[in-house]
Amino acid sequence: MKIINHEKIDKFVKKHADAREPFARWKKIAEDVTWHSHEDVKKDFPAADRYKTCTIFDIGGNKYRLITKIDYGIEVQIVDVQEAMTHAEYNKDKWKSGCK
What we know:
Elements: E1 2-4, H1 7-15, H2 20-31, H3 38-44, E2 49-51, E3 54-59, E4 64-72, E5 77-86, H4 87-90
Parallel strand pairs: 1-5
Antiparallel strand pairs: 2-3, 3-4, 4-5
């Protein structure tokens, strides 16, 4: 998978140093796979959920959330990072407006 907007993760882990390793593990896995459907995502990340156009990943033992949009294209598959956040920020549901 090609990951775009990963700078949002970089910015987040600068504020939350303990998130660096869990997000790095997610990124390593996501870069090394090819997903053609949400079912493929679930094979690598069983806790991944969908909300409208977004795929949500639990990161760091449910401490963090990663909101993405995934293009399961035939030739190129892209994970577009929308937001990285704490679980508490996620629970405020402000991220949902970007998942139309």
